[in-house]
Amino acid sequence: MNGKVIICGAGPVGLVTALRLARAGVSVCVLEKRETINVASKASTFHPPTLDILDRLGLLEPVRGRTRVVRAAQYRTVAGPFARFPFEMLADLTEHPYRVHVEQAEIARAALDALERLPHVRLLFGADVLSVESADGAACVRFWHDGREHALEADFVLVANGAGSALREQMGIGFDGKVYPGEVLRVITRAPMADFIPGLDGVTYLFDGNRSISLLEMHDCWRVILRPSDAALDETRRDRAWVEAVLRDVLPAAIAAPPVDGWDLYRASRRIASRYAVGRAVLIGDAAHVTNTRGGMNMNCGMHDGCVIANAVLRALESGDVAPVLAAAERRHRVGSTLLAERTDRSVGDLSHWAERVRAIAADPREARAFLVETSMLDMIDREDIDAI
C-alpha cells in the first residue's frame, strides 16, 4: 500500500499502532524523544479486546512466559468474598475471555522487536518533535535529531507522546480536567498473597468501608494498589516503615502484612483532549486522555484508539479521502469523554454503597454479564475494528 505515517512517541500505544500499520504495508516512521523505550513499571492489566488486538499482531506469544492469566475478578470485604465474576461468561464475545497481567514495557519491547524486522519501518530515538502541521494533502513534522532540525512529510501523523504532549498544545487542542485528591500508593510484594489472605483470585478488590484496595497477581509478584487516608498522607516520612504501617491499616483481612519489596507514590488525573484530530494529525493514547489508573483502562483505551485510527488511516489511504480518519477520531473522542472518563471516575468517588451494588449485580446472571462487558471494555471498541486486523 502506498502511504506514509509518522508516529510521535514510542510508548506501547505508539509502537503497537505502528505495527498495525506496518503489517498492512504502510511506510511508518516512529520518532521518540528518549534514547530507548521507557521500561518503567506502569500499567499491567490487559483486557479481552486488547488481547484480541495484541494476539492478531503476534505480540502475546513473545511475552507469554512473563504473564499471569486471570480467569475471574473477585470482590470481598474483611469478612471474605461476596462476589466473583468468571470471565468465561464472555467467551462468545472475545477470543480471550480472561485478563492478562504483564508489564506494559514487555508489550512495547515485543512490538519494537517486530518493527525492527520490517524493511519499511524507520525508528528514530533521540528525536525531539518540535511541531506538526497539517495541510489538505499532507502533514509535516519538524524535529531535532543529531544536533540539527529536520522535517518530514507524511500522509498522516499520529501523536502518541504522552499526557504532557507539547504537540497537543501546539495543535491548539485543550486538555482540561482535574487532579484527583490524594495520592495512589502501589506496593510490590514477592510473597504469595494467598499466604496472607487465603482464597484470592488474580484480580481482587477488597472493600473496607469507603475505600477499595486492588490486589493484582503478576508473573513474579503481587501489586497492592490503594489510596492512603489523608491522615496517613500527612506523615512527612515515606519510608519502608510508613508503607508497612499503611498496609497493616488497609489489609485488616490479612493474617499478617506481607513483606514490602518495593513501592511508589503517584497522583492520578482526569483529562480529556477537547478534540482528537486537526486535519491529518490525530491524538491517541495518553496524549488524548488520562484517567484514574484503576484497571489499566486508560492504557487499554489508548491501544483501542491506535487500532481504530490505524484502520481508518488504511481506508483513507485507499480512498484518498481524509473523512474516515476524522470520523474515527470523533468516535474515539466520544468513547474517551463518556465511557472511559465516567467508568474510571466511579472508582474514586464514594464507595460506601458500591460493595452492596456489586453483590446485587453478581446475583443476577444477566446483570453480571453486562457488568463484565463494561469492566472488560468490550463496549469501548467495535468488533469490526478488531476483526479488520
**CATH homology superfamily:** FAD/NAD(P)-binding domain
- Work out the helix count: 11
The CATH topology label is FAD/NAD(P)-binding domain
CATH architecture: 3-Layer(bba) Sandwich
Mean pLDDT: 92
Rounded to an integer, what's the Rg over CA atoms?
A: 21 Å
Structural class: alpha+beta
The residue ranges in which pLDDT falls below 50 over 5 or more consecutive positions are none
Q: How many runs of DSSP E, i.e. beta strands?
A: 22
Strand residues, percent:
25-35%
How many domains make up the 3D coordinates? 1
Overall geometric form: globular
CATH class: Alpha Beta
**What distance lies between the first and last C-alpha atoms, to the nearest angstrom?**
15 Å
Helix content: 25-40%
Widest sheet: strand ordering: 6-5-15-16-17-14-18
Domain FAD-binding: 4-340
InterPro entries: FAD-bd, FAD/NAD-bd_sf, PheA/TfdB_FAD_monoxygenase
Pfam families: FAD_binding_3
Keywords: Monooxygenase, Oxidoreductase
What report would you give on this structure?
This protein is an alpha+beta fold and 389 residues long. It has one domain: FAD/NAD(P)-binding domain (3-Layer(bba) Sandwich). The protein has eleven helices and 22 strands. A seven-stranded mixed β-sheet has the order 6-5-15-16-17-14-18, covered by helices on one side. A six-stranded mixed β-sheet has the order 8-2-1-12-21-20. Strand 15 (203-208) and strand 16 (211-217) form a beta hairpin. Helix 1 runs parallel beside helix 3, helix 1 (12-23) runs parallel beside helix 7 (297-319) and helix 7 runs antiparallel to helix 8 (323-345). The longest helix has 23 residues, at 297-319. The two termini are 15 Å apart. Pfam families: FAD_binding_3. GO terms for molecular function: FAD binding; monooxygenase activity. Keywords: Monooxygenase, Oxidoreductase. This is FAD-dependent monooxygenase.
